[in-house]
Amino acid sequence: MTRSVAFVGAGPTTIYTLHALLQQEVPPFELTLFEKQASVGRGTPYRPGWNDPAMLSNIASVEIPPLEETLVDWLHRQSDDRLSELRIDREQIDDRAFYPRVLLGEYFHDQLQAMLERATCAGVKVNVRTRCEVIDATSGSDGMTLVVRPERGGVFETLFDHVVLATGHQWPAQPEVRPGYFLSPWPASEIEKIRACRIGIRGSSLTAIDAAVALAVSHGAFVDDGQGGLIYAPGVGTDDFHMTMLSRKGLLPEADFYFPIPYEPLAICNDEAIEALIAGQMDDLLDRAFGLFKQELAAADGVYAERVGLDRLDMEEFCDGYFAERMATDPFVWADRNLAQAQADYEARRTVAWRYAILRMHEVIQSLIPHLDDADFQRFSRFFKPVFVDDYATVPHESIKRMLALHKAGKLDVLRVGENYRIDNHRAESGAVLHLDGEAVHFPVFIEATGQRALAAKDFPFASLRDQGIVRDVAAGQERGPARGIVVDDEFHPISPDLPADQLFCLSLPFIMGRHPFIQGITSSCEIGQVVGAELAAALARESAVAAEPASEAQGMALS
């Protein structure tokens, strides 16, 4: 009997999972992809319309795990006309380059098509169901039943042996939920309709930069200044156009820095050391892990360790010190200096050792998260996590140039709001009002741009799995604090005694971010895809072997 596998969602996480599965030796199976968009492979972060062509990804080509081919090889294979459509000069193709989001969408789309053709040749029956939204799922002893609503025709149910939920980020299709108040900066096609006025943007990371870029290109243009920088030229009639980014710390992200790829191994704060701490089941697990972090950092860059007094700092003090110098400097002055340094380091192929050490440790430290109690999880989220996020969530040099150009043109500022501020979006006037330090500032348009947050089980899109108790929140001893997401194991199965083995995998990012707080990028899609692809391959092979056993026994009886 042919086994069946369904993927709900057809973005990068599905692509890398399917790639890992097809790399294994598995018996033929039936594969179905459900995607509510008109085409598969592009995913929300990379599809046209949702993103403006000017929006850049924040991952260099060389960091993108290859599929059927590398991104650079794929680019070299494209015609000049297609490269022109993608706004790329052939001379610009480089494995350290950052490319537009929509270009990555085209790459993933083509790679998925090639994978599906290869699967078909290998005996896999492939069904691609676009414009089909899965609206519910129910677990049973005979499989997982999906309730599907196609764009045309009636709702129907269909049964699968294995289901992978990879529904990706969750953003509203219409971001303007009240006049002038936008819950997200996507789709960009909606943001670009905003009139030239005073605009507040909550956040200053890449998501906020995406919003600023979409608005900027709709009200003007970035022009090369002939010296490696950019000038922003406002459009006619846009005198009232001005953006203010609201940031707790009043910072812009730093420019991408040069480092060796693949990562060099860690000597002290590595997987083995963290696993040993976890096995010890100690109450001070987080502080012991921070001790290993400090040792690794000091070994990597003794000058930096001495300069910040690392040996005397606890976790909270280190976090404060990490940001202190930047917070004491105008964010655009710092961004200008940081960009110049990053460009010089790239030119010299020079690595800032302490930055590289922190970058390599973030995924190692992440394995602690399921083992932290609520108090330490909150400490981690407030003090340790921001350091890692700041270090790895750097942005393309071009993005920093754009922010500097907008500021010099008088179109962009960054406002530090700290922790004690309030946004009121329920006023009679459009947009929202910022309440800060006893003052009220009205923004006729206000955009929430702090990125995807971790979601709880109540937000899970498949109600029957909640009702069955299969999808449930990580138990918390406190009512308030960061969301810890839903309960999944190391192989991304929801943990439930009523769920048959390997029937369901949950890779829906907002619901596993509590356990995996750094799991938002393409490299994370590859890593979790490898885990789930291997699990699926093993399950299919095991089930095929079991199905063959009765036939073998019957044949043996006939021969006797």
UniProtKB/TrEMBL annotation:
Q: Does the keyword Ribosomal protein apply?
A: no
Stored SUPFAM superfamilies: FAD/NAD(P)-binding domain
Q: Keywords in UniProt for this one?
A: Plasmid
- Keyword Lipid biosynthesis assigned to the entry: answer is no
> In what residue span(s) does the FAD-dependent urate hydroxylase HpyO/Asp monooxygenase CreE-like FAD/NAD(P)-binding domain sit?
6-170
Tell me which InterPro entries the record gives. Answer: FAD/NAD-bd_sf, HpyO/CreE_NAD-binding, L-asp_N-monooxygenase_NS-form
Q: What is this protein called?
A: FAD-dependent oxidoreductase
Species whose genome carries this gene:
Novosphingobium resinovorum
